[in-house]
């Protein structure tokens, strides 16, 4: 069907990165998207009688997992069978420290290195060689985790919550992560394949800087090339709503997992699995991270989803967070005192300044 001039103009307009971001709210700055959410949060804080009410939602996780929590400390709460082999290292570590640990645990490349405290994919690197480790150590200034790479083909963000005392919880969101990748035609470079992808154009400068060796590759016809191995929205990953995949069997499996994590009631499991069928059975999957009170239901960022539906789901989860915190508080879990909460936020800000200096 022949396109109208307006349709052609609109398509051309959306090919310009500025307008693509402007007309697709999933790319808007965090503070812009969340301004109405902050207003609702203030209402909930009054209702709970604490500005830091969220801290009571997951009492065994520092600050409830809203921000500044240690990934290593959270891993210590999760039964070992559910997580990849992981170890925390100080920034003063040498490459030999890491390779010795790899040999002792039987790990081979690739592995992941990532800050013990961090968010939105900051400093998360897939490591393929000793040279990659040495390069990482030259830039990292904070404690970091070394983690076995999980090769399972499906990466998910699975949001789960359970009210205090309840035997059953709910999986309220499943986000399937479509990593930034291209498929070869036998004659076009990865760089030019990316340029033909509207979404990839927003990130191509970053890819040029981080993965220069991939840009001039010419993949064969039908050959897939994973450009960005880290499943994070700000690194080009497409978030797709797979919430329809929730079943009673899947919720029963995650009830068992969640109950085995002391003090956990609300948050998102970032995981990799081989298939949904196997995930339902609790086999062939690993939890890459567990995010607490500060977690988002990532499905709201599916391309084309309206911002109003996004707000509906975000506010629903925030309301659930408040209700869980209030119930825990009535059972004796304290809220973080105001002054202590301010001190913690100042500590996180100091940490972020250190991050920015890298």
Topology diagram in text:
Blueprint: H1 5-14, H2 17-22, H3 30-48, H4 71-75, E1 86-89, H5 95-105, E2 111-115, E3 125-127, H6 130-139, E4 144-148, E5 154-161, E6 170-178, E7 181-183, H7 190-195, H8 198-201, H9 204-210, H10 212-215, E8 224-226, E9 238-241, H11 248-259, E10 266-273, H12 276-281, E11 285-291, H13 307-330, H14 338-356
Helix pairs in contact: 3-13
Structural overview:
It is built from 14 helices and eleven strands. It has helices at residues 5-14, 17-22, 30-48, 71-75, 95-105, 130-139, 190-195, 198-201, 204-210, 212-215, 248-259, 276-281, 307-330, 338-356, and strands at 86-89, 111-115, 125-127, 144-148, 154-161, 170-178, 181-183, 224-226, 238-241, 266-273, 285-291. The strands form three sheets. The protein has a five-stranded antiparallel β-sheet with strand order 9-6-5-10-11. A four-stranded antiparallel β-sheet has the order 1-4-2-3. The termini are far apart.
């Amino acid at each position: 069907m022949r396109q109208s001039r307006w349709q052609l103009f609109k398509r051309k307009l959306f090919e310009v990165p500025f307008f693509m971001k402007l007309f697709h709210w999933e790319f808007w700055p965090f503070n812009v998207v969340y301004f109405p959410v902050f207003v609702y949060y203030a209402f909930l804080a009054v209702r709970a009688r604490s500005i830091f009410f969220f801290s009571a939602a997951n009492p065994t996780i520092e600050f409830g997992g809203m921000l500044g929590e240690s990934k290593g400390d959270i891993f210590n709460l999760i039964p070992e069978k559910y997580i990849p082999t992981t170890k925390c290292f100080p920034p003063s570590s040498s490459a030999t420290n890491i390779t010795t640990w790899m040999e002792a645990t039987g790990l081979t490349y690739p592995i992941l290195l990532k800050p013990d405290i961090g968010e939105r994919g900051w400093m998360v690197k897939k490591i393929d060689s000793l040279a990659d480790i040495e390069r990482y150590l030259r830039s990292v200034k904070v404690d970091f985790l070394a983690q076995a790479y999980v090769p399972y083909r499906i990466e998910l963000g699975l949001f789960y919550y359970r009210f205090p005392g309840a035997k059953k919880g709910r999986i309220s969101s499943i986000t399937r992560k479509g990593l930034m990748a291209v498929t070869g035609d036998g004659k076009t470079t990865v760089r030019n394949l990316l340029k033909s992808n509207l979404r990839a154009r927003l990130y191509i400068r970053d890819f040029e800087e981080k993965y220069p060796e991939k840009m001039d590759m010419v993949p064969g016809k039908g050959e897939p090339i994973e450009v960005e191995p880290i499943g994070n929205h700000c690194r080009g990953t497409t978030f797709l709503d797979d919430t329809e995949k929730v079943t009673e069997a899947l919720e029963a499996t995650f009830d068992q997992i969640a109950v085995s994590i002391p003090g956990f009631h609300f948050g998102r499991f970032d995981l990799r699995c081989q298939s949904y069928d196997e995930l339902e059975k609790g086999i062939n999957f690993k939890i890459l991270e567990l995010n607490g009170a500060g977690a988002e239901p990532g499905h709201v960022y599916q391309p084309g989803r309206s911002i109003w539906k996004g707000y509906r789901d975000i506010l629903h989860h925030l309301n659930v967070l408040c209700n869980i915190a209030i119930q825990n508080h009535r059972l004796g879990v304290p809220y973080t005192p105001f002054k202590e909460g301010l001190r913690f936020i100042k500590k996180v800000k100091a940490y972020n300044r250190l991050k920015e200096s890298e």
